[in-house]
Structures are given as structure tokens and as C-alpha cells.
Amino acid sequence: MPIKPFLKWLKTQIVEAFKISDAVMRGKAVETIEHEVAELDNIFGILVLGAFIGIPSPPIHITMELLPLMNKEFDIMLDKVLTAHDPLGHLFSVLGID
Amino acid sequence: MKPQLLFFIGKGGVGKSTSSALTAVYLASQPRQTLLVSMDPAHNQCDIFEQDFSEKPKKVSETLMVKEVNTDFWIERYLKETTNQIKETYRYESAFNLQNYFNVLQFSPGLEEYALLLAFEDTLHKHADRDFIVFDMAPTALTLRFFSLPFITLIWLEELLTLRSEIYRKKEIISKIKIAGREIEQDRVKAKLQSLIGNYEHLREHFLSDTTRVNLVMNNDKLSFSEAFRIREKLTDISIGIDRIVINKLKEDENTAGIENEFKDQKIAKLRLAPEGLTGYDVLKNYIAENQEAFQNI
Predict the structure, then answer these.
(1) N or C: which end of chain B has fewer CB within 10 A?
(2) Strand runs (DSSP E) across A10-97, as ranges?
(3) Torsion of CA B285, B288, B290, B293, to 10 degrees
(4) Radius of gyration for chain A, computed over Cα atoms and rounded to the nearest angstrom
């Protein structure tokens, strides 16, 4: 087998494998932070929009000022309310605990 | 030159409306361009001046205008503006559901004092050319919530901004790792929080500045005295000082030493009781002419 094309093919395979491995590692590195950010987003949503899920906070005028800019957080918060009956299940799933 | 803002506060029934009306008429006669604003939902200025008032200032004399704040109007207007903004950014179903919530939100605790604050800002904005703006305030509870609102709001906003900044910082880390530092979009919520903080700091400065002068109206009786004492304490907690004590409805030779001792740091004004009542512009003018000394230390 000609050596040069084989080495070229091998190099391409190694680079591809490295790219995939790199993407997986980056994904793993941020997984926990992403989960943390999602929870912080949820907490922020509850703090600002709590009035809509039965929590009387914050002062209503703060809610009203920010409401037009928080459609994404509003949807996330309502979704979370629906899964609120099994928060531990959700947490275990994120942390990969069987 | 910014207008001087005189707030007349005190227990219900002590004579805030009458004292503020007399003060406004006196200032207008100096002659200074004066606006009297009734911020008490149970408006009395229409009875005192014997004419109707509304959100639109009405000329009572060459130098005096009077207006009444309608808190329902401000709440409705505010909710309508927010609804319109939401319709632009929310999905149809969410916006539709929110409409039901808004019908209930108009009764939320906190909206009434917020409506007063909106009316206050609007007044300052539209009448910056006045020499004096005299505010006849609501009874104690609502007035204290009105004054506290900028301070409480700033505490909330600063905490929310800290949390939001932390979220944004973490999102930037994720972005740097995952997509090699491509810039994430600017956070509109964070920008809005910063803008709100600026507004409320400005409002707080108004309340703390020399142009804001709080006149605490009281009568020479125990209940009124106790409440005045509590009002001073609450205002001290938010660093708002009382400029002047107005002792209203005083009978001939009544002893006010107790009040004067307790409020040593404040100017004292004594308003004699008018048994025949004080209604009508001319009656107010006559009263002022006969009791000039009560208005010298405004």
C-alpha cells in the first residue's frame, strides 16, 4: 500500500477523532455549568415573575417593567412548574445518577 | 431653577388638605408660581376651593393652579402600556393567558403607591417651571409606602442585577468553551435593570435633596402626637428629614410646649382653629391675612 496516501488518511482520521473528542470534552466541561445556568435562570424567573405562579414577589412594578423582556424565562418557568412534582428525578438525570 | 417640593403629611383628619391649601394660596400671593397637587385618593381640595379639579391643572388665580391625581387612571394606563409591549414580544398563547392575569393585577398590593410615584414624576416633568409644588398627601400608611418605594425598589433591583450579572458571566464561560468565544447577544434584561436603577436613584435623590421639604401636620392631642412621632421614625429609617411641623386647629392660648420640645430640630408653625370652617378662595385669603406669622417660616 502506498505509504503517503495512507499516512494522509491516518492523519485525517486522527484529526477527526480529536475534533469529536474535543467537542465531547467541551460538552462535558460545560454540562454542569449549563445546568447551573438553567437553574439560575429559573430562580431569576421566579424572583421576577413569581406573581404568575402564586409567589407574591417582587414589588409588582418591577415585574411589570421586566415582563415584556422575559418571554423566554416566562415559558421556562411555566414548563418547570409542570415538572415540579419530580425535581429530584430531573436533578439525578442531569448528574447522570442511575 | 428647580421647583421647591412641599409635602404635607400626617394622620387622617389633622388638616393636611387645609394646611396645604393655605400654604399654596400664601405662596401664590407672594407672588410665586405655585401648583397644588392633591395626592390623596379621598380628594378634599374640591371641597376647600369649592370647585371641581381633575388631572388637568386648573387655574385658581394668576399664580396658582390646582390638580387632582387619579390613581385609577395611572394604574390603567400603566397596565395598558405593559400589555402592548408584551403583545409585541410574546407568543400568542402566552399573551392571551396574561390578559386574564392583568385583570387581577390591577388590584395588586403596591400598585397604588406606584401610581402615585408615576403621577409624581409626571408632575415634576410637566411643571418644572413652577417655583413651588405643594403636595397634599394621602394619610400616613400610603404616604410612607410612597416615600419608601424608591428605596425598597433599589434594594430589589440591585440584588436582581447581581444575580443576572452572574448568569451572564456563566453564559460567557460556556460560550468561550463551546463555541470558541463567539460573542453572546447582549442581555436586554440586564440593560433594563441598569436603566431602572438609574431612574430610581434619581427619584431617591429628589426625596433626599434640599428642594424636598416635608411638612408634618398634627393636632395638639395624644393620638396625633404619637402618630407624628412614629412617622418621624419611619422617615428617619429612609433618611428623609422633616422640615416643618404644622400644629393645626389650635384654640386660643393652647400649650404646645410638649410638641415643641419633642420636635426641637424642626421649624414650628401654628395654625389657629377656624370654627366657621375654611372653604372658598376668599376665606382662605382672609385667614392668611389674619395669621401671617404662621406662614413666615415656609
Answers:
(1) N
(2) none
(3) -160
(4) 23
Contact B267, B245 (CB under 8 A): yes
Residue B108 and residue B12: Cα distance in Å, rounded?
Answer: 23
What is residue B296's DSSP assignment? T
The answer for residues whose C-beta is within 8 angstroms of residue B270's C-beta and 6 or more apart is B247, B250, B256, B294
Altogether, the residues listed in chain A come to a count of: 98
Looking at every residue in chain B, the average pLDDT score rounds to 90
Q: Which residue has the cell 430589589?
A: B156
| Shortest CA distance from B91: residue in chain A | A71
Using CA atoms, how far apart are residues B233 and B206, in angstroms rounded to an integer?
A: 20
**For residue range B127-137, what is the model confidence (pLDDT) as tens digits?**
999 999 999 99
pLDDT at B15 over 70: yes
Asked if A65 contacts B195 with a C-beta cutoff of 8 angstroms, the reply is no
Q: Given the C-alpha cell 436582581, which residue does it identify?
A: B160
**pLDDT per residue as tens digits for the range B55-98:** 999 999 999 999 999 999 998 898 888 888 877 777 665 666 66
Task: State the best of B99, B177, B186, B194 to mutate against chain A, taking most chain A CBs within 10 Å.
Answer: B177
Q: Give the residue from B108, B169, B172 with the most A CB atoms within 10 Å of its CB, the best one to mutate.
A: B108
Contact B76, A61 (CB under 8 A): no
B270 pairs with which residues across the strands?
A: B247
Find out whether the peptide bond into B31 is cis, omega within 30 degrees of 0. yes
- Which residues are within 8 A (CB) of A94 and not within 5 positions of it... i.e. 6 or more apart? A31, A35
Q: What confidence score (pLDDT) does residue B95 get? A: 60
CB contact under 8 A, A34 and B174: yes
ipTM score here? 0.80
Grid-cell match 415585574, residue found:
A63
Cell numbers linked to A37: 445556568
Q: Is B205 exposed, middle or buried (0-12, 13-18, 19+ CB in 10 A)?
A: exposed
Mean pLDDT within B136-160: 94
Strands B4-9 and B58-61: unpaired
B103–chain A nearest CA distance, Å: 12
The x, y and z cell numbers of residue B25, run together, are 394660596
Record the pTM. 0.84
Q: Side chain identity at B65, as an amino acid letter? A: M
Which of B108, B170, B193 is closest, CB to CB, to A60? B108
